[in-house]
Amino acid sequence: MIHPHTEIRFINDAVGLGVFATKPIPRGTIMWTRCALDLVFTPAAVAALRPDYRRIVETYSYIAVDGDSILCWDGAKHVNHSCAANTFAAIPDVDLAVRDLAAGEEITCDYGTCNLVHELACLCGAPRCRGTVRRRDATDHGATWDALVAAALPDAARVPQPLRPFVREPARLDAILRGEAGVFAHAQYHLAP
Amino acid sequence: MIHPHTELRFIRPEIGWGVVATRPIPRGTITWALDPLDRCLTDAELAALPAFAQRQLETYSYVDRRGLHVLCWDHARFVNHSCDANCLSVGYEFELAVRDIAAGEELTDDYGTLNLTEAFPCSCGAARCRGTLLPADKFTLAPHWNALARDAFFLLRSVPQPLWEVLLEKDEIAAALADPARLRPIQTHFAPATGPQAAPAVAAWR
After folding, report:
1. Which residues in chain B show pLDDT less than 70?
2. For residue A17, which residues of chain B lie inside 8 Å, CB to CB?
């Protein structure tokens, strides 16, 4: 479930749709959480899909740490990749804003956390764009992403969190927000191919 | 699934986003078809959602004949209403162009066909705008919608149909094309005022 202060907008033909903040959103805000309405496809279910639907599922879903493909029911499926993403995971399937977001700013995540089946050429235009996004990025760059999340955690404990009731593992999230547990290491997202 | 020759565009502030043709779409083209990735929610599932998600769902979903709230997975959910809609349905899970749609023209349907549960103020600007859409409109307007959609339906085989493979009821549709007496009317979609909700049928298609 994507944060309520967001909307889908058409960007251009190359990028397609994206998700944008409609109000300023402070660092530490849960921007998205996997929720009960998302469609879940096991690897066998993905393989059994008709090719046209399989292409859709592969385009708009991500592969979670349990190996299932998750197709978000709402605008979250249109969140684009950036090599300078403004959201990263505090625990699996819960993404926090790692900097303050302005109204009108695009919400982005790093597809290096998505267990990509195929490498993606990146068009994000960030100064340190990696050019290609791949599954092993979570291992190669995870420590950098972990540090961004760690810096946002003090804010996460005190900003409004409208998505907090929909987090699937609230105790695990709360322990991290209270400083009782270390942040989830993004490297653990990287599933064996 | 919405027709591939469409895109999401900002229409104007009081309308928000809408779906616009990127190429000409001739009359008789299937412009949208229900597909297995669309989400069908019961009243109970809707009620369990937070208020902001319920509002989002009520804005972007429609109610089908089972009383389920159908949220299209793609930008089909942004198709706006017009009292002079260019897309309508007969009694199957798809919509079709009831007149030629030009490149750059917005695709619209008539929310009056979608089992409204309350009055819906309309600012579509059509010459015959009804001003307010009422839940009971569907009973009086069904003959009008059927006449428009029926003529377009019999053009199905004469125009390109990129969504044909998505259709759920190909056999029934082929039978109606061969024998017009078998064509199901739009009233097929009208939900009973009360009644039990079946389990979402999409599960069976997967």
Report:
1. 193-206
2. 8, 75
**Residue in chain A nearest B54 by alpha carbon:** A4
**B105 in reach of chain A (CB within 8 A):** no
Q: Could you tell me the CA-to-CA distances from B77 to A64, B18, B39, B73 in Å, in that order?
A: 26, 9, 11, 7
pTM attached to this predicted model: 0.83
**ipTM confidence:** 0.74
Please give the helix or strand (H or E) that residue A19 lies within, else none: strand A16-21
**Per-residue CA distances from A150 to A28, A108, A142, A154 (Å):** 10, 18, 12, 8
Q: Identify the DSSP state of B184.
A: P
Give the residue from B7, B39, B73 with the most A CB atoms within 10 Å of its CB, the best one to mutate: B73
pLDDT at B205: 32
> What gap in Å lies between CA A47 and CA B102, rounded to an integer?
38
Contacts of B76 in chain A (CB under 8 A): none
Q: Which residues of B touch A71 (CB under 8 A)?
A: 37, 73
CB contact under 8 A, B45 and A37: yes
CB B69 within 8 A of CB B46: yes
Question: What count of CB pairs under 8 Å joins A to B?
Answer: 48
Burial A57-88 (b: 16+ CB within 10 A, else e): bbebbbbbeeebbbbbbbbbbbbbbbbebbbb
CA distances from B198 to B21, B43, B65, B68, B69 (A): 35, 11, 10, 8, 12
pLDDT tens-digit map of B197-206: 443 333 333 2
Find tokens 């195929």 and name the residue.
A118
User: Across the interface, do B8 and A10 touch by the CB < 8 Å criterion?
Assistant: yes
Per DSSP, the three-state class of A32 is strand
